[in-house]
Design brief:
- By secondary structure, the chain is an alpha+beta fold.
- The protein folds into two domains: 41 residues; 153 residues, Immunoglobulins (Immunoglobulin-like).
- 26% of the residues lie in helices and 50% in strands.
- The chain contains three helices and twelve strands; from the N terminus they run H-E-E-E-E-E-E-E-E-E-H-H-E-E-E.
- Strands 5, 6, 7, 8, 10, 11 and 12 form a seven-stranded antiparallel beta sheet that branches. Strands 1-4-9 form a three-stranded antiparallel beta sheet. A two-stranded antiparallel ribbon has the order 2-3.
- The longest helix has 39 residues.
- This is Late embryogenesis abundant protein LEA-2 subgroup domain-containing protein.
């Protein structure tokens, strides 16, 4: 009788321990599931979307020197790059670079200053690119012909490194890269068309 009465509290204690362990395991499983879902949705960084917002061409004045034929041209292209941050947190970017290409040849480059793009917002990053005459030398005739024809086909290759921070301590690094091919109208200074391809290293 005594042994039976002692075994009942022991069995009850073991049952309570099992229920407690089962409850803790269930809560831990739910917590892990929630964390995984958040990591795959809310905390998953999204690549920024880049496009050319506007462009202005300055200094279109070729100079020809004689008796030795020497064509000199000084052209500055002011480009406004629009970067859309699709993340739920701000995107803090560092120093970036943008290259200007003409018919597959790099003819200019510029630096992009650091900045902060708010969550789910867009920012305009101004860039000033000076076309380098020596790099245009091989395509100078075609370049002047395009200017006279009223349309200039150019390409920008942009790289912007940065990071997003979730909950104040979860940091995700992003390197946004874009390749924009656009047709620029002369002298109306309008972008006739553009195709931008974006990708990011997450």
């Amino acid at each position: 009788m005594g042994e039976s009465s002692l075994s009942l509290p022991l069995q009850h204690y073991q049952k309570c321990c099992w229920q407690l362990q089962h409850g803790l395991a269930s809560r831990a499983f739910i917590l892990i599931t929630v964390c995984v879902v958040l990591a795959l949705t809310l905390f998953k960084p999204k690549e920024p979307i880049t496009k050319i917002s506007s462009a202005t061409l300055q200094g279109i004045s070729p100079r020809v020197t004689l008796p030795v034929l020497n064509i000199q041209i000084n052209v500055t292209l002011d480009i406004k790059i629009q970067v859309e941050n699709r993340n739920r947190v701000s995107f803090k970017h560092g120093d970036g670079t943008s290259l200007l290409m003409y018919k597959g040849v790099e003819v200019g480059d510029t630096d992009i200053f650091p900045g902060l793009i708010p969550a789910r917002s867009s920012s305009i990053l101004p860039c000033r690119l000076t076309l380098e005459a020596d790099k245009l030398a091989s395509n100078m005739t075609g370049f002047i012909g395009d200017l006279m024809g009223g349309e200039l086909s150019l390409e920008t290759v942009t790289r912007i490194p940065g990071r997003v921070t979730f909950l104040g301590f979860i940091k995700k690094h992003i390197v946004a890269k874009s390749n924009c091919q656009f047709v620029f109208g002369v002298p109306d200074m309008e972008i006739k068309s553009q195709i931008c391809k974006n990708k990011a290293k997450l």
